[in-house]
Amino acid sequence: MTGEQVRAARALLKWSAKKLAEVSGVSYPTIQRLESKDGPLAGYADTHDAIRKAFESHGIQFMVSGEVSTGLGVAIDREV
User: Fold this and answer.
1) Which of 15, 35, 37, 78 has its CB 3.0 to 4.6 Å from that of 19, i.e. a possible disulfide?
2) How far apart are CA 6 and CA 8, in angstroms?
């Protein structure tokens, strides 16, 4: 995931950064820091997983370019 994708996924769900922090269990300052930079997320893999799972549990799908969705939800493309 990238900072841009996190911001876009939040926008699709109409979530604030505080809401993402609440749903993911990742601290609000960490969400702010990760979103503040473009490109791949820095930090711990467990943090990325928690954010991804929060989005996926609400219908967001992160896909490799060219991949086709097999389920319902909003798709956001991600680089490999």
Assistant:
1) 15
2) 5
Counts for the chain of helices (H) and strands (E), in that order: 4, 2
In this predicted model, what pLDDT tens digit does every residue of 40-65 receive, in sequence order?
999 899 999 999 999 999 988 877 77
DSSP class of residue 63? E
In angstroms, rounded to a whole number, what is the distance separating the alpha carbons of residues 42 and 11? 21
Residue numbers of the domain that contains 9: 3-78
Q: How far is Cα of residue 17 from the mean position of the Cα atoms in its chain?
A: 11
Q: How many structural domains compose the chain? A: 1
Q: What is the structure's pLDDT at 3?
A: 92
Q: What single-letter amino acid sits at 13? A: L
CA distance 6 to 79: 13
